[in-house]
Design goal:
five-stranded mixed sheet; ubiquitin binding; elongated; F-box-like_dom_sf; repeat; F-box domain-containing protein; Methylamine Dehydrogenase, Chain H; about 900 residues; WD repeat; four-stranded mixed sheet
């Protein structure tokens, strides 16, 4: 090619040594000899058929030494690239105390001979082979030098060379010597004459041989080869290859293999590539994605591939779980792009990340026999009433009025949130915002980044027992008979349920919004019932009134709110308008737990009557009544494919939410289930003395995480992390397990319920191993104790001025209750406790603990308020026929209290005044 530099042959300087009395060494350098250039390649019509047309030859083929018959040495160099590559290597090859010399620093360096010079020189061999070496034209004579003064080193100028053609153009290509002879050597081998007139002109120190003759004929050989038909070209090359030694074949292979390789993933249509890759297992795909950046981009971005892989491995759950995960990842990337607009590598599709996370969740929790485990004390000996894991933080609340934030890695307490004047019974978090509800009747908003309480919402007149944060999401809404997708609510909301029989809806303050506190810092002693007027709160939206007893549980998503109450009913509300859409009646005793399933348009509720009911939210009818539990169903959990219930009968049950079919009964605990959480792979449940892990799909126990302890208060998990709060020797302890390995940093957990908050503010048992048989009376007492263990609201909190019997921490065992009773319940210190009187109400001297409420008359749910005659019946008529004393409740007390005689007064009815202990300064 004319644009490429011509090959050259650099001659090594000749050395003549003459020994007389002294030794004189003469060094003569020669200018590079230009070899005839190769003919430029023709421009093919389809370059894809000529992959080697512009292939880069390896350095060993562009720069190599030559040894001529008389021992003279030279270096063949094809163009200037070899020298540049060589120079670059010399510049980078070095070490401590040494470095490789550059080419011009080595005096022993060989001369470089160009291709044309080498061909010309080797062509001379045949025509002058009959002459002796020292008589050959162009060869320097070393024995006849009589100069005693070494001439200075001098580089001769290169002379232009004529085009050499040794064969007839019509003759077949042959490496044999040309019969036509060559031009005079004087015009071919120019050299630098040594200085001084007495020195003879130096001659080129080489004896041409077959190699040089071949180089001379190569240009014409190449011209003839290109004019041959493809079959003859193949025959000719194969003939040469058959006579080539192994080193030559290896060199050719190193050139041909990368050049002729074809990346089929980049050449095939994306649909076909996705289909081919779908046959590969996950480990093979992971290795293939590391072949090249192009393969990684193709594999990681193929949503169909990873969706099918999720389905084939049975970890595609359906519903909104996958889309919710993807939306969460996209929200994180939008925030990250503000800091790093151009990532170095294409980001994988969220389905690929989801597959890896679910694969790790399915395998690590079972196959990691020794996960990292730390434990540390928390909250002294007080009960942990709430425990959540949010954005890599452990947040625990207690009936000691405090909220603590811990690091799951070190167990270090990061923050202590103080401000509540009563036990904290409800928590919810999103990003750096925490919402808490307490027996002091307030709702507080905290900034987890700073630990400050930024807002205090008042309005409830009794304990805030449950709450939830409702984030905006796309939900189905019926408009004029057509179901459309709309985003509701328009901004994040807080829903709170209280023992004052009502629920309230608040706007969740955004970071930076104006702070609001329902009382002033210098108000002195104030009555919150008078000062905290919710109507004056700009964040207050709705007051949902309708329940006739304490609101025990709630669940909310989109525009739908479901609440369960001690009035045995479940109500469905429109969270935007406040409309009470349905009153779902069917339970015969208190409702303790509810879950909401928007995907199936249904809600589930658990009751003290031992049943779980599945309600159709479209018509308000009970679709299924799930029976099997023999005691209070105090806990419910819902995942895309499983509904799990936990009861005081020491069992958990896994149901099919679509059909109501019982799949598995988890029976290995020996006491009431005090806490549990589950996903599609596992169930973690706590009871007296142990914390167990179960396989969700076969209902078999997998391992015990905790054994031999007093009891478990709470358990939560997400991704690689598991956190449990338990009681050991009157000390509350937090245990943290990390099931991930060192290379599992990108293990992304799915939060409980599948609720993500990345874009919430976006632009848009006893220790006994043997269970002894019990008499009938003992059976009844044990059953009641198990019910009490699940009923977290039997014993009053010391923050209430009146003995209110609805809020109580979980009581996993008798021993736990005994350990707590001395500190938690001041009613154990005296035989009775007086109740301050209020206008219109004459308080009795003693209050009895209620037994089981008799079920009210069952009526079909209907829209609007309930029409039951509950108001006309005194509460005493709904009590159990026998009064149970505190001795029936786990805990050392023989105090006997009676219910109020006022039919309009219940243990949870709001009072008009509060004692001094509940006032705020």
């Amino acid at each position: 090619m004319s644009s490429h530099p011509r090959p050259v042959l650099m001659l090594q300087p000749s050395v003549n040594t003459t020994t007389v009395v002294t030794t004189t060494t003469t060094t003569t350098t020669y200018a590079p000899i230009q070899l005839p250039p190769l003919p430029p390649p023709s421009s093919p019509k389809d370059p894809k058929n000529y992959p080697l047309l512009h292939a880069n030859l390896p350095k060993s083929l562009r720069h190599f030494p030559l040894v001529f018959p008389n021992g003279s040495r030279a270096t063949f160099r094809d163009g200037e690239g070899g020298d540049e590559d060589m120079q670059e290597e010399q510049e980078v090859v070095s070490g401590s105390g040494w470095r490789m010399l550059k080419r011009d620093e080595n005096v022993q360096d060989s001369s470089v001979v160009g291709l044309s010079e080498a061909v010309e020189r080797y062509g001379k061999k045949r025509s002058h082979s009959h002459q002796s070496d020292n008589m050959m034209e162009g060869i320097e004579t070393t024995a006849n030098s009589s100069s005693t003064v070494p001439p200075p080193r001098k580089k001769a100028r290169a002379a232009p060379l004529p085009q050499i053609s040794t064969v007839n153009a019509a003759a077949p290509p042959s490496p044999l010597p040309s019969p036509h002879g060559s031009p005079a050597p004087e015009s071919i081998w120019p050299s630098a004459p040594p200085s001084g007139s007495s020195s003879p002109a130096p001659q080129a120190p080489l004896q041409p041989d077959l190699a040089l003759t071949t180089l001379l004929t190569l240009p014409n050989l190449l011209s003839h080869f290109t004019s041959l038909p493809p079959q003859l070209q193949s025959h000719f090359l194969l003939t040469l290859l058959r006579h080539s030694p192994l080193p030559v074949l290896r060199t050719l292979h190193s050139v041909l293999t990368p050049t002729l390789a074809r990346d089929f993933l980049t050449l095939l249509p994306p649909e076909l590539v996705s289909h081919i890759l779908s046959y590969l297992p996950f480990p093979t795909l992971a290795r293939a994605s590391r072949v090249s950046k192009a393969w990684r981009a193709i594999i990681d971005s193929d949503a169909v591939l990873w969706r099918d892989l999720l389905k084939n491995t049975k970890i595609w759950f359906g519903g909104d779980s996958e889309s919710s995960f993807a939306n969460s990842i996209y929200a994180r990337r939008r925030r990250a792009q503000r800091n790093d607009p151009q990532p170095s590598l294409p980001l994988p599709h969220p389905y690929k990340m989801l597959f890896k996370s679910r694969h790790l969740t399915r395998t690590r929790w079972v196959n990691n026999p020794e996960p990292k485990h730390i434990s540390f004390p928390a909250h002294g000996s007080s009960v942990v009433t709430c425990l959540i894991f949010s954005h890599g933080r452990i947040i625990s609340a207690s009936d000691d009025h405090s909220i603590h934030v811990y690091s799951p890695v070190t167990g270090e307490r990061l923050r202590t949130l103080e401000g509540h004047e009563g036990g904290v019974w409800a928590l919810a978090a999103c990003k750096d915002t925490l919402v808490s509800g307490s027996t002091d009747r307030t709702v507080r908003i905290w900034d987890l980044a700073t630990g400050r309480c930024t807002h205090v919402f008042g309005g409830h007149t009794s304990t805030v027992r449950c709450l939830a944060i409702v984030k905006p999401e796309m939900v189905d809404v019926e408009r004029d008979g057509v179901v459309v997708k709309e985003k509701w609510p328009k901004r994040p909301l807080i829903v709170t349920g209280s023992r004052d029989h009502s629920l309230r809806v608040w706007a969740l303050p955004r970071p930076g919004d104006a702070e609001f506190k329902c009382f002033g810092s210098d108000d002195g002693e104030v009555d919150l019932a008078e000062v905290c007027d919710a109507e004056e709160n700009p964040y207050h939206k709705l007051h949902l009134d309708g329940h006739e007893h304490a609101v025990r549980a709630l669940a909310a998503r989109g525009r739908t709110l479901v609440s369960g109450s001690y009035d045995c009913s479940v109500r469905v509300w429109d969270i935007v308008t406040g409309e009470n859409k349905w009153v779902l009646q069917g339970h015969t005793q208190k409702v303790y737990s509810v879950v909401l399933d928007l995907e199936r348009n249904q809600a589930c509720s658990g009751s003290m009557d031992g049943t779980v009911r599945v309600w159709n939210l479209q018509n308000g009818q009970c679709q299924y009544t799930l029976t099997g539990h023999t005691s209070l169903v105090g806990l419910l959990g819902l995942s895309p494919s499983h509904l799990v219930s936990a009861a005081a009968d020491s069992t958990l049950r896994i149901w099919d939410p679509d059909t109501g079919e019982l799949r598995h009964t988890l029976a290995a605990h020996t006491g009431a289930i005090t806490c549990f959480q589950h996903d599609e792979f596992k169930v973690l449940s706590g009871s007296d003395g142990n914390l167990k892990m179960w396989n969700t799909r076969d209902g078999q126990p997998v391992r015990d995480l905790l054994t031999g302890i007093t009891g478990v208060w709470q358990v939560v998990f997400e991704g690689r992390w598991c956190v449990a709060a338990s009681n050991r020797s009157d000390q509350t302890v937090l245990d943290v397990w990390d099931f991930g390995l060192d290379n599992d940093d990108d293990w992304i957990g799915e939060p409980a319920g599948g609720i993500y908050d990345d874009d919430i503010f976006g632009e848009d048992d006893d220790d006994d191993d043997v269970i002894k048989p019990m008499e009938e009376d003992e059976d009844e007492q044990q059953e009641q104790a198990d019910v009490d263990a699940m009923d977290q609201d039997l014993i009053a909190s010391d923050s209430d001025s009146v003995i209110e019997l609805d809020d109580e921490p979980p009581i996993p065992s008798r021993s736990q209750a005994k350990a707590r009773s001395r500190e938690v319940h001041p009613i154990h210190e005296t035989r009775s406790r007086s109740i301050p009187s209020s206008p219109g109400f004459e308080a009795p001297a003693e209050v009895a603990v209620p037994g089981r409420w008799e079920p009210p008359a069952t009526s079909l749910a209907s829209g609007g308020p309930s029409t039951s005659s509950r108001h006309s019946q005194p509460h005493t008529s709904r009590r159990h026929t026998r009064n149970i004393s505190l001795a029936d409740i786990p805990g050392p007390s023989s105090s006997r209290r009676t219910l109020p005689n006022n039919p309009d007064e219940t243990p949870t009815r709001p009072r008009a005044s509060r004692t001094h202990s509940n006032r705020r300064r």
